[in-house]
Design goal:
By secondary structure, this protein is an alpha/beta fold. The protein contains eleven helices and 20 strands. It has a domain of 172 residues: Carbamate kinase (3-Layer(aba) Sandwich), CATH 3.40.1160.10. The protein has an eight-stranded mixed sheet, with helices on both faces. Strand 11 and strand 12 form a beta hairpin. Helix 2 runs antiparallel to helix 3 and helix 5 packs parallel to helix 7. The longest helix is centred in the first third of the chain and has 25 residues. The chain starts with a strand and ends with a helix. It binds adenosine-5'-diphosphate (ADP), aspartic acid (ASP) and magnesium ion. The site of adenosine-5'-diphosphate has 19 residues, from loops. It holds the Pfam family AA_kinase. Belongs to the aspartokinase family. Tetramer consisting of 2 isoforms Alpha (catalytic and regulation) and of a homodimer of 2 isoforms Beta (regulation). It catalyses: L-aspartate + ATP = 4-phospho-L-aspartate + ADP.
C-alpha cells in the first residue's frame, strides 16, 4: 500500500482561479512522487466572512443550524473548482463533502467536534487511484444535519482524516512560511521556527495564534500525526510540530494575542457554596465556553465573578444574562468587549517568577494596566485593554529576545 499524504490549503491559498491552479499543480506533484493524496481545502479567500455578513443582513441572530448550512457552501465551491483544475491537468480526482467522506460530528452547530470518520468511501476512492479533495470545516451529525467545526476548522478536518487513515504526514499550507514566534503580520521581527512541540503549539493556538485550529493540534498530538505548516506559495520547509523531547526546552517559545474575546462581570453575587456551580452550569447548558475566571472576594458577604468568553458566544450569552442574574441573585451583569488576551508560551517557564516579573515589567514600562492574570505550567496570560494589545505584544517579543 502507498503512503498517504494529507494536505490542507487555506482560504488565501485558493483565493482565485490562478491560485487554485497552483494548488492543483502541487497536489499532482505529490501524487507523482508516489503517494496517495487527500487534500482538504477552505472556502476561497474571504468567502466565509462574506457569507456571515449576508446572514447578518437578514437576521441579527440566525439559527446555528442554518448558519452551518450556509457556511458549508463556501468549501463546496472550492473543492469542486480544485477537482476541475486537477481533471483538466489529466488526473483522476473526486471531490467530497464532509458528509460524503463520513465525517460524523456532535450536534453543537458552529463549533461541532468530530466523533468519528467512517473511512470506507475514502479508502475506496484511494484504492481506485483517485486524488481526493475534501471540503474542510464541515461534517454531519446523527440527524444528517450539516455542522461546521468552528472558524479555522479546515485544519482539523485535515488532521482528523490523517489520523483516521494513519497518514504518513499532514501538511498545512498557508499564507506564511510556517509558525513564527509571534504573528508576523503584527510583529515584523517575528522569527520562523523550524520546530515547536505539540504542547506549545496547542497552547499558542488556543491563546489566539490563528495559524492552526487548536483542535487540529490536539488531534495531531493524541494520534501522533506528523504535522507541518508551510507556505503554499514558496518551497521552504516550514515548521514541524514535534514531541517535546525532540527539541530544546526554552522558557518562552512564542507570543499569542487574542482579541476575539469579551470580559463578563457578574457583580455582587452572594458569597456562599453553589453560586459558581449554578452560574457555570447555565453557561455549559448553553454551550458557552469560558476561559479565565476571577472571583474577587470582597465586601460584606458578596463577591464579583468575572470571566472571559469568545466574542462569537456573546449573542448567546446576552440571551441568558438576565436569567443568570435572577437565578444566582447578582446585582448586575456587565460585559466589555474592548479587551484582549496577551500570552507568552514556553515549556520551560513553569512557575518562574523571573519570567513573570519580566512579563509584567514590559507591560508596566508601557503603562498598560493588567485586568486579569492566569498561568499554567507552560503559559502566562493577561487581559488588557485591546487598544494596547499590539504594542504590548511587540514589547514582550523584544523583552524576551525572540526576534
Ligand atoms: P489559512 O487561510 O491558510 O487557514 P489563516 O489566516 O487561518 O490562514 O492562518 C494564517 C495566519 O495566521 C497568518 O497569515 C498569520 O497572520 C496568522 N498568525 C497568527 N499567529 C501566527 C504565528 N505565531 N505564526 C504564523 N502565523 C500566525
Ligand atoms: N472557511 C472557514 C473559515 O474561514 C474554515 C477555514 O478556513 O478553516 O473559518
Ligand atoms: Mg486557518
Amino acid at each position: 500500500m502507498k503512503e498517504i499524504i494529507v494536505q490542507k490549503y487555506g482560504g488565501s491559498s485558493v483565493g482565485d482561479i490562478e491560485k487554485i491552479k497552483n494548488v492543483a499543480r502541487r497536489v499532482i506533484e505529490t501524487k507523482n512522487k508516489g503517494f496517495d493524496v487527500i487534500v482538504t481545502v477552505s472556502a476561497m479567500g474571504d468567502t466565509t466572512d462574506e457569507l456571515i455578513e449576508k446572514a447578518l443582513m437578514i437576521s441579527q441572530n440566525p439559527s446555528s443550524r442554518e448558519m452551518d448550512m450556509l457556511l458549508s457552501t463556501g468549501e463546496q465551491v472550492s473543492v469542486a473548482l480544485l477537482a476541475m483544475a486537477i481533471q483538466s491537468m489529466g488526473h483522476d480526482v473526486v471531490s467530497l463533502t464532509g458528509a460524503q467522506c463520513g465525517i460524523i460530528t456532535d450536534s453543537k452547530h458552529k463549533k461541532a467536534r468530530i466523533n468519528n470518520i467512517d473511512t470506507k468511501r475514502l479508502q475506496k476512492e484511494l484504492s481506485e487511484g483517485r486524488i481526493i479533495i475534501v471540503a474542510g470545516f464541515q461534517g454531519i451529525n446523527e440527524n444528517q444535519d450539516i455542522t461546521t467545526l468552528g472558524r479555522g476548522g479546515s485544519d482539523t478536518t485535515a488532521v482528523a482524516i490523517a489520523a483516521a487513515l494513519g497518514a504518513a504526514k499532514c501538511e498545512i499550507y498557508t499564507d506564511v512560511e510556517g509558525v513564527y514566534t509571534a504573528d508576523p503580520r503584527k510583529v515584523p521581527s517575528a522569527r520562523l521556527m523550524k520546530r515547536i512541540s505539540y504542547d506549545e503549539m496547542l497552547e499558542l493556538a488556543e491563546l489566539g495564534a490563528g495559524v492552526l485550529h487548536p483542535r487540529s493540534v490536539e488531534l495531531a498530538r493524541k494520534f501522533n500525526v506528523p504535522l507541518v505548516v508551510r507556505s503554499s506559495f514558496a518551497d521552504s520547509e516550514g515548521t514541524e510540530i514535534v514531541n517535546m523531547d525532540q527539541i530544546e526546552r526554552v522558557a518562552v517559545r512564542g507570543i499569542s494575542l487574542d482579541d476575539d474575546i469579551a470580559k463578563v462581570s457578574v457583580l455582587e453575587v452572594p458569597d456562599r457554596p453553589g453560586i459558581a456551580f449554578k452560574l457555570f452550569s447555565m453557561l455549559s447548558l448553553n454551550n458557552i465556553n469560558v476561559d479565565m475566571i476571577i472571583q474577587n472576594v470582597n465586601r460584606l458577604s458578596v463577591n464579583d465573578i468575572s470571566f472571559t468568553i469568545k466574542k462569537d458566544d456573546m449573542a448567546d450569552f446576552l440571551k441568558i444574562s438576565e436569567t443568570i442574574k435572577e437565578t444566582i441573585g447578582a446585582e448586575k451583569v456587565t460585559y466589555d468587549d474592548s479587551v484582549a488576551k496577551l500570552s507568552i508560551v514556553g515549556a520551560g517557564l513553569a512557575g518562574s517568577t523571573e519570567v513573570m516579573s519580566k512579563f509584567f515589567e514590559a507591560l508596566y514600562e508601557l503603562g498598560i494596566n493588567i485586568q486579569m492574570i492566569s498561568t499554567s505550567s507552560i503559559k502566562i496570560s493577561c487581559i488588557i485593554d485591546r487598544d494596547n494589545a499590539e504594542k504590548g505584544m511587540a514589547k514582550l517579543h523584544e523583552k524576551f529576545q525572540l526576534g
